[in-house]
Known about the structure:
Helix content is 33%, strand content 13%. The protein is built from 18 helices and 8 strands. The chain has helices at residues 50-59, 69-78, 88-94, 98-104, 109-121, 125-131, 137-156, 164-176, 181-189, 191-199, 207-220, 223-228, 231-246, 280-293, 301-309, 317-324, 361-367, 467-470, and strands at 387-397, 414-424, 456-461, 473-479, 486-492, 500-507, 511-518, 527-537.
Amino acid sequence: MYVCQDPPHVVLDLRSSFTIPKVDSQKPVGLPSSLFINDASPEPLPPVSSSFENLLRSMASPTLETLPREVLQHIALLTTSTPSEPPTSAIRMIQTNKFVRHKLHSPPSDFHLYASIFHSKFDTAAISRRQDALPRNSILAAELLQRYAVLERIRAREIHPLYLHSDLSTILNLIVESDGLDEWHLRKAGLVDFILDVSEKLVTFKEKTRALSLLVLSLSLSRRYIDFQNAQWIQDLLVRIQPFAVSALASRSPCFSNSSPTDILPGWASTITSRHIKHSSSAAILLTLALVEATPLQFPHHVIHQYAVNPLLRPSLADLEAFAKVKAPMVAEDLVEVDPSAPRCLYGDSCSGRSIVARSRSHDREFFRPGGNSKPGVACASDLVRGLWEGSWLYYPCLSEDVELETSSPSLICRKPLQLLLEETSSASSPVSSLGQMEDLRADDGSEVTTVQSPVQFKGQTLTEHGEASGYWRCAGEVRPNDGLLTFKMHRMYVEDSTWTFEAFIHYDTVLVGRCWSGPSLQASSCRGIFCLSRVSAVSGGMVQEDL
């Protein structure tokens, strides 16, 4: 979390973060000659009368060193009007002479200048909304230096072991706080190429760095980008990502445990909690589904012929074609195109009258503790469960606990469609319990958070018109209140079959990602799988039958 106290003995020097051109004392860079203070002795002027000399002095423009500090700061801010470039022009202005440097580069004026640059170049609406107030200028100034240093390493595609964890933390902050401008900086710097380079070394990273890498990758890749790649590229990335998705199928996977997470992000540079580390498997599952779905489904010719002869044959060709169109939703798919040079208001709206979507709001519920009218400690509101969910799931062979899940890439058994209509129920009895044990969740800053003890109950079923394609499923389960884990059991309506257990989290308010297994327990399961469902309708309308 941002702190509200100035760190002791903070010394800011932008020169350490950027390549600064050497300023020629005779030919200053970026400043008109009339404003440059030359320490050298000027050439002698021709003699003039004293009255004319006094007139010239009265008409002379003030030099930079005579301007008030506030005016100098405003001029320096105007020199940083190019959104995608570091404020090197302001640095040149600071280096004009010792008088200007003293006014602009000594606390607290330098903090104020750099904080103003931060406001002009990055989104701040999410920070204000989540913190109720922006951090002190010294914190914003330090964050400005960190962000430009990270953007410079992204451009150079420099993956340095000493900086990587901190760089990924900063990138994640930029994404979840973005209303368009932050992600514009990342795209201009080449984030996708950078994070793909990082993904090639996932196996060598420590767990926390690996989790951050998977999260940033899942938030950065769009389906349009994936579909543009060739089959070999997709297969290579799938081989790198799939083992971490399969690792969620281990019975002791930290993604689905109920233990309180530990803080892994720099506390002074983040508005998000470390709870996201538990969702790294969800990021790998989402990426795996997206990569598998990038390969078009192939229908056998004899099946197509059978459908043509007998249109009533189920599942119909229309069902299969509809299933082929189901895609795992990617967060980067709906990036907002913004004009970085346009004036911006405080909460993510364009001052020119065109409203900009507050993209950061989709991350609010997941990456920071809700405030206002929300109950603290509730990670998943009941209204998020209600609705029609569609997607697919992948079956994997039974995996032994002794298998090195991080390095294995099991063969895929089957990909099948899945549709569920979910709604809350007033039933007080819990039909299923999750693997984790209930315990209080503590806030990352050490303060106690109230935990609501009664879980949200829900039930669901497959719509009749999609039953043949999706399998006529019924389910009942609950939402674990302190971290939002959905646990529910599913069985087929008209077939004597084994019961399946599903565990999942809702991400970005519209995506349900998790794992599943058949049989009484995960350890004794004969088949395990991963799944991803997207909410296509937010209201169920009471269509779930009562005889569940």
